[in-house]
Amino acid sequence: MVDTIKGWIENNIKGDPIIWFIAISLSILSILVVYSATGTLAYKSYGGNTEYFLFKQTFLVLLSLIAMWVAHRIDYKYYAKISRVALIVAALLLLYTWFSGVNLNEATRWIEIPLINQQFQPSDFATFALVINLASMLAKRQQNIADFKESLIPILIWCGVIVGLIALSNFSSAALLFLTCMLLLFIGRVPVKYLFMLIVVGVLAGIIAFKIGERGETVVNRFENWLNPTEVSFQARQSYIAIATGGIAGKGPGQSDQRNFLPHPYSDFIYAIILEEYGLIGGILVVFLYLALLYRGMVTTAKSERPFGGLLSAGLSFALVLQAMVNMGVAVGLGPITGLPLPFLSMGGTSLLFTGISLGIVLSVSRGEHTENLFRTKKKKAPQLA
Amino acid sequence: MLRARLAFLCVMLFAGAIMAKIFHIQVMEGEKWRKISDEIGLQYRTIKATRGNIYSDNRSLLATSLPFYKVALDPTIADGDLFNQNIDSLTYLLSKHFKTHSQQYLKRKIVNARKNKRKYVVLSGKKINYREKKEMATWPIFREGRLGGGVIFEKVDKRFRPFAGLGLRTIGYLNEDNYGAGLEYSFNDKLAGKNGKALFQKIAGREWKPLHNGSEVRPEEGLDIETTIDINLQDVANAALLYSLQNLSADYGSVVVMEVGTGEIKAISNLTRYEKNGKVDYREIYNYAVQGVTEPGSTFKLASFIALLEDANTHLSDSVDTGNGKFKYHDRVMPDDKFGGYGKITVREVFEKSSNIGTSKLVNNHFGANPQRFIDYLYSFGLNRPLDFQLVGEGLPYIKNPSDKSWSGTTLPWMSIGHELLQTPLQTLTFYNAIANDGKMIQPILVKRISKAGENIKSVESVVLNKKICGKSTLIKVRELLEGVVERGTARNIRDSHYKIAGKTGTAKKVKKGGGYKREYYTSFCGYFPADKPKYSCIVVIDNPKGYRQYGSDVAAPVFKEIADKIYSLDIAMHDPLPENVEPEKGIFPVIQAGLQEDLKMICNELGIANHSYTEEEWVRAQRSTNFVKWRANKVSPEVVPNVKGMTLRDAIYILENNGLRVRHEGVGRVKEQSYLPGVKAIKGSTITLKLG
């Protein structure tokens, strides 16, 4: 029995086991914390039936783990091929959302997928597509990376368009993506002087979005709130209370009081709830898990034989962990309120799904040269293993 | 890879910053934030659902929930001057209002609490209503409000019954631990609704402020129940019973009025003697009609006679020798009420005179060899089963079985006259109602509709317990017997010429504790009316009347009669057409049928119609004489309902309202019918319906 399970795992679960471990740990924690934090939301929408969100989140977590598993079975080189198409689709979706999206929390970021009735955030998809495409473009141009006209112009155009489109409705996501792109270009050996150019492009895109987008005022307000030293904003105040009352060991699972005050305790401020319920210990553990994830992503990059694999792994892990750091930073008051979810931990459909696929791709890279593929027959596998 | 390492290092630095910030918040600022947290004080608290109302059959409120207030004070809030200058006048007003404690006591209590920094002092156990609260809010200290003076008005929903004690035991109650009686208890699952929940934040003292963060579970309001109780009949029944109980100084009494065709209980009154500080009063304390099981006595003879008529070839004209009024079964002597006995009488007379010896002899002769057969009849009438109707806590009837250990040679004769068995008054009434309802036995019904905001949620239909309790010829015979009781028998004192009453008296000696019978009586009368076309059935029981009149006929039957009279006068549908001489002459006098003599005379004189008056009365009625119009007196006295037939609506309203009645009218023209018969006692404030045409 044990052998068959072992055998199945060996045959079907490939790639870095530590990344798998981290992903599953965060998933379990996610179910616990979301269940606790949705207490108030459940009262609001489902007449006190908190189990609704427990089941929903468990289902979504399982779905994202399955997506991760599927993604890791696919040869990562395949992603390079579809990334350009994905990017064009993403751009169109962003435009569509801008004109006719669902307004949630005063920002049009969502489109409703018909039939399954699930809300879908195109910016998640766009971020994901851009990072893969960027890794692909950079890998192709590694030989003449210093050639501005040939190599950098197309890269910068794509970055500018996507970041700009996202910035129209979601300034924080755009800023984060911009930062991720910078990091990726930096790692992709783009000369530092060109990176400064990229900053110029980014700032320009930012200003345009700021002028014509709907989020300009919010951004200014949030920065003002954050920079104002005398007055702590309501949200930050509630978050600090959560952190302070959590103490070293926390109040225990499901014992949060601040979930009743914090807006979106199951998403934007989930880290505050973790600190309240699981204390400093839980908080440090979560930070450590993300750092470990990033570290394993770096290890994968180092081990990768192809530049594309390395850049892909680095780009995706950085995108994910940077977002995590920003979310946690906001919760403890290191930055203005952003509205970014905590990858893998926050409640939310598409965010969770793309996190799973991202990690799946990193795992796919970590497997090295694929000897077999989900879509290939087993025939080819035998001679190569021998 | 150097660049990747650099990037990684940056992220690690940021992670370090996050942990440093957490440490800062928890340790450096921890005290501050924890203190703020303590002040927030959150709690999920229940929001009580509003309890549903109980209505009468025409949607008059019988019970509803109204807000009342508990008055408390936080004596630490008012500042020194305000407190010291006003505490005397405040406590004076409080003491005067509540009358529970002296001014000095209240003042001491409040001042001590202030000294000890107690933040909550209840000022009286009595709750005040909204009007009183408004007034109190203007008193010294109180008028500074919750935050300036420290007054706390805690809202408590209290059950309010607009008709006070009327039918109190049947409307019932519910106490804190959800136990109670009557409709309030029986229909609690419908009335209660479902409590909601919401997050509340503590504010100074014991006050909680709802947070309104959208996390509430809204309370579900309770449903209303609409009863079959007719508040007019209830009032009539209650008044008649009370009057009689007071006169007789009886222990308790009970009346139930039921609508024959539907089994709807239109009135139910239970009054128990209640002595406090030497003052005797009667109150609704126990629901004897529903819960009180007793030996019914002679009213049970009806069941015996139905069994006899069903089983044997018994004719009402057969004769029975009842002897000299004493008859020995084994070691027990059965007496008849008449000294010296009834001698040889017919079966009909046995019932009408309520002869114990006659009844028991008939039953003993027919069923003595096989008492089980008699018992089976009683069982088939459903007399051994509870009615299992809408009120919880019904008394359980008991009919002995020959196989029981306590069955003896004297059981059958004594059972036949209503002893050695147990019934509740309502069970007896239901049985009599079946006879009135052509043999169809219907489960009594007290709640006919469950509604919400006037909209029907569920209608309750009456359940037929037994389609036919006896054969047609038996039915005709027993109805004849029951009418005979009032026409010629024990209840002839309540005979009425307007309408026929059918029924049976009952006088049972009460069982002593530990066996034997006391010289105390349980009297009853159960019957229905009008006998030829039964509309209502009714039972009256009066327990332990004092004085020398102690028989059912003298005690309970007159109460029945009084109730029946009033119901009869209230219910126009029951009336026979009135005798000719009271009617205005139809078709002859279009304008001058009845009215003010002066007006009518003037009209006739103007039109040249010969008229002549026979009376000095102000109000007259026209009658045709050979060739002139005669004015006959139409006496109007303030105590009784006047005859307004033939009058214009204006005249009728004038007279009736002067007599304290309220007028409702239908149609146009002159008064054709009036719902209260002329000559009936006018009940102030009740509504009379006039049909015009």
UniProtKB/TrEMBL annotation, chain A:
Keyword Glycoprotein: no
Key words, A-Z: Cell shape, Glycosyltransferase, Membrane, Peptidoglycan synthesis, Transferase, Transmembrane, Transmembrane helix
Membrane topology category: Multi-pass membrane protein
Superkingdom of this protein's organism: Bacteria
Enzyme class: transferase
Transmembrane segments: 18-37, 52-70, 82-99, 155-187, 194-213, 269-295, 307-332, 344-366
InterPro entries: FtsW/RodA
EC number annotated for this UniProt entry: 2.4.99.28
Major site of localization recorded for this protein: membrane
Subcellular location: Membrane
Reactions catalysed, as given in the entry: [GlcNAc-(1->4)-Mur2Ac(oyl-L-Ala-gamma-D-Glu-L-Lys-D-Ala-D-Ala)](n)-di-trans,octa-cis-undecaprenyl diphosphate + beta-D-GlcNAc-(1->4)-Mur2Ac(oyl-L-Ala-gamma-D-Glu-L-Lys-D-Ala-D-Ala)-di-trans,octa-cis-undecaprenyl diphosphate = [GlcNAc-(1->4)-Mur2Ac(oyl-L-Ala-gamma-D-Glu-L-Lys-D-Ala-D-Ala)](n+1)-di-trans,octa-cis-undecaprenyl diphosphate + di-trans,octa-cis-undecaprenyl diphosphate + H(+)
Signal peptide positions (record): none
Family: Belongs to the SEDS family. FtsW subfamily.
Name this polypeptide is given: Probable peptidoglycan glycosyltransferase FtsW
Highest classification ranks of the organism: Bacteria, Pseudomonadati, Bacteroidota, Cytophagia, Cytophagales
